[in-house]
Design a protein that fits this description.
With 570 residues, this protein is an alpha/beta fold. The protein has 3 domains: 60-197, Alpha-D-Glucose-1,6-Bisphosphate, Chain A, domain 3 (3-Layer(aba) Sandwich), CATH 3.40.120; 205-442, Alpha-D-Glucose-1,6-Bisphosphate, subunit A, domain 3 (Alpha-D-Glucose-1,6-Bisphosphate, Chain A, domain 3), CATH 3.40.120; 445-569, TATA-Binding Protein. 38% of the residues lie in helices and 22% in strands. It has helices at 3-10, 18-30, 32-39, 63-80, 98-111, 125-134, 169-178, 199-212, 238-245, 278-287, 318-335, 354-362, 373-383, 410-426, 431-442, 457-473, 551-569, and strands spanning 49-53, 87-92, 115-119, 139-143, 152-159, 194-197, 225-228, 250-252, 291-295, 302-307, 313-315, 343-348, 365-369, 388-394, 398-401, 444-454, 478-479, 482-489, 494-497, 503-505, 514-518, 523-528, 534-544. Strands 16, 17, 18, 19, 20, 21, 22 and 23 form an 8-stranded antiparallel beta sheet that branches. Strands 1-5-4-2-3-6 form a 6-stranded mixed beta sheet, sandwiched between helices. The model has no long low-confidence stretch (mean pLDDT 95). InterPro entries: A-D-PHexomutase_a/b/a-I, A-D-PHexomutase_a/b/a-I/II/III, A-D-PHexomutase_a/b/a-II, A-D-PHexomutase_a/b/a-III, A-D-PHexomutase_C_sf, A-D-PHexomutase_CS, Alpha-D-phosphohexomutase_SF. One of its GO terms (biological process) is carbohydrate metabolic process. Belongs to the phosphohexose mutase family. Residues 44-180, 204-307, 317-438 form the Alpha-D-phosphohexomutase alpha/beta/alpha domain.
Length: 570
């Protein structure tokens, strides 16, 4: 008997409800492939929570896997704070079952004596981060699978500073979760311990976003914006934030302003994908808009498109968007005389190295952590009272302005990028030209690209693991015709200079990531996704630039170089 079948038969006991038992029996009788994928392992409660396909099974997101995770979290909270009233804020997105899962999670918490602040309906993930701090909660939970396909859902855990959990705390919570048995889960909640929250928190959140994401009123009535929530949660907040910030020409894509867990108008509700903004770009061309902004379903990621010098709307990649945002923030801080060298911006290991150049330009620090905003939030926590965090971002279309929210935040980012576009338009320029001007100021233009290779299921996970082993045992000697001179292995924590043979320890938590650097300054990172069945290759190249008129030629050369790198990895 296979281990999957053995695990499945355990779910036929009276500890599981009849609907679950019937579904499991159906898999046993009729669908051995699905049975194997549903039960061959436990859906991992990782360092930030878990994400997976919804359905019955140990490797699926359902009542029992969510119940075990929440019971473990409740045990940890009650052990950590034994002599005080405990509270947790819960938000959820527009996905199928998110509202049901949120109530289930609330019931488990209240059954363990923990007060719950539950949003009345779907809300953005950054609002959950804000709410944890605003209400002084001990933790927060959001039910979301971000931009994953409709069959997915997820569960992310935040601590009392509004940031996702990180080591060593995450390990302690994971240990509690792993020790939970099915009969330990308390599903019978106490509704008297649930407070429904909504407009009051919304208003406070919007006020904070406008305060942190606005520096001037210049041009805000003249800039024409197309905004789309891509059927997600930002539809309830971002339009109100635009209005409060003074933008008067904001046009929503009407078909995508309808919340839906099916995301019916897109292949993927991910603003990183150009296709997701097709309808928004079409509307922008129809009405002559200056900028396009789109957010993912839980409204932490944001995609930005703007007109280039030929008048065509082009999508900025995450590094380009964040370059403009970080530079503008630092300009404003410098103009206000607030920079004294004890400030920093945050970035990640797979994000463009341009952020080092930007920090050096303004005489501040750039701190770099693993992929994920919880690591940028952890920097804020570690340096609180010593250095001031100004802003930070990662290549996957996420940015955070200040520390009032401790996660990537599309709402404040949308306001800030729109302000930059408005200021540039008032000067007779554009957001696109602002990016080029920054490259010239730094003396170096950058270009990035990304390949995602999807390998679903058990076989896919095994293949991705083998690919990373192969990269370590048979590393490339050159990439796009340029010699590889340095390799960073974040799993072994070794940074090796291939010219001298010198090895340096990497002072960042271990992660299954490899980064190769070439003689001509190119950078390629290889990383299995932590939330999806895919392996990612990140490419970054750069070249000298001295004036804005050189950009078209330099940009074309950089595009060709990224294509050569991609060929090596395809």
């Amino acid at each position: 008997m296979s281990s999957s079948l053995e695990n499945a038969k355990l779910w036929l006991s009276d500890s599981y409800d009849i609907e679950t038992r019937n579904a499991v029996q159906d898999l046993i009788d009729n669908n051995p492939t699905e049975l194997d994928d549903s039960f061959y392992k436990n859906l991992e409660f990782g360092t930030g929570g878990m994400r997976g396909i919804m359905g019955v099974g140990t490797n699926r997101l359902n009542k029992y896997t969510l119940g075990a995770a929440t019971q473990g979290l409740a045990n940890y909270i009650n052990t950590t704070y034994p002599n005080k009233e405990k509270s947790v804020a819960i938000a959820y997105d527009v996905r199928h079952n998110s509202d049901t899962f949120a109530k289930l999670v609330a019931d488990v918490l209240t059954a363990n004596g923990i007060k719950v602040y539950l949003f009345e309906s779907f809300r953005p993930t950054p609002e959950l981060s804000f709410t944890v701090r605003h209400l002084g909660c001990d933790a927060g939970i959001v039910l979301t699978a971000s931009h994953n396909p409709p069959v997915y859902n997820g569960y992310k855990v935040y601590w009392n500073d509004g940031a996702q959990i990180v080591p060593p705390q995450d390990g302690a919570i994971i240990n509690e979760v792993n020790n939970v048995k099915i009969d330990d889960i308390k599903f019978s909640g106490n509704d008297e311990l649930i407070s429904i929250i909504g407009k009051e928190i919304d208003d406070a959140f919007i006020d904070a976003c406008v305060t942190n994401g606005s520096f001037t009123k210049e041009g805000k009535e003249e800039i024409k914006i197309v905004f789309t929530s891509i059927h997600g949660t930002s539809v309830v907040i971002t339009p109100k934030a635009f209005e409060k910030a003074g933008f008067t020409q904001v046009h929503q894509v009407p078909e995508q302003a309808i919340p839906s867990g099916d995301f019916p108008t897109v292949k993927s509700p991910n603003p990183e994908e150009p296709e997701a903004l097709t309808m928004a770009v079409a509307l922008a061309n129809e009405i002559g808009a200056d900028v396009v902004i789109g957010t993912d379903p839980d409204a932490d990621r944001v995609g930005v498109a703007t007109r280039n010098n030929e008048g065509e709307i082009v999508l900025l990649n995450g590094n380009q968007m964040n370059t403009v945002l970080a530079y503008y923030l630092l300009e404003k801080w410098q103009e206000a005389g607030k920079l004294n060298g004890k400030e920093f911006i945050g970035s990640t290991i797979v994000t463009s190295d341009i952020f080092y150049d930007i920090a050096a330009k303004f005489g501040i620090n750039c701190k770099v952590g693993l992929t994920g905003f919880k690591w940028i939030a952890d920097m804020i926590r570690q340096f609180e009272g010593k250095e001031t965090f100004i802003g930070g971002g990662e290549e996957s279309f996420g940015f955070m302005v200040g520390d009032f929210i401790r996660d990537k935040d599309s709402v404040t980012t949308a306001l800030l990028v729109s302000e930059i576009a408005a200021v540039q338009k008032a000067k007779g320029s554009s957001l696109y030209n602002k990016l080029i001007e920054i490259y010239v100021e730094l003396g170096k233009a950058y270009q990035e690209d990304l390949i995602n290779i999807v390998k679903p299921g058990k076989e896919g996970a095994e293949l991705i693991a083998k690919m990373m082993v192969d990269f370590r045992t048979n590393s490339p000697k050159e990439l796009a015709g340029s010699k590889v001179i340095r390799v960073k292995d974040f799993q072994s924590s070794i940074d090796k200079n291939l010219i001298t043979g010198e090895e340096t320890a990497i002072d960042i938590p271990k992660s299954n990531v490899l980064i190769f650097y070439t003689e001509d300054g190119s950078k390629v990172a290889c990383r299995p996704s932590g939330t999806e069945p895919k392996i990612k290759y990140y490419f970054s190249v750069n070249a000298e630039i001295n004036n804005v008129n050189e950009y078209s030629e330099v940009h074309e050369k950089l595009i060709k170089k990224t294509e050569l790198l991609k060929q090596d990895f395809n």
